[in-house]
Amino acid sequence: MFTDDSVKVVDILKVHAHKIMGHDDKHTRCVFLLYAEDDDTVNLDAVFIKHSIDDCIENLDLDTNKRSVQWMMNQITTYTPETQLLAGVKFKNGEVLCHVFARKKSGTTQRRFA
Questions:
Q1: Between 60 and 97, residue with greater pLDDT
Q2: Is the pTM here over 0.85, yes or no?
């Protein structure tokens, strides 16, 4: 994945971020993933799928040799669920690009990415 891909993912997440704003579990570490189509696009009606750390390890069939997967696993274990949300896009080639959203004090998110 390249820098342009990361910018593309940020744009995708901006379009879809409202779908996870109501998530109010501030104690469980998880990642919300959108799944890209074969052409690396994400449909407007795509739904975030919530994955726990265990789910990522056991059920997602992730290629842990990919740097983007290693980075996602680092993010899921280091972000602060009380003040942040982790969301990303999983591509057909196995790459996963994620960004951390800062929560607003009301429990929603704002558009700042880390």
A1: 97
A2: no
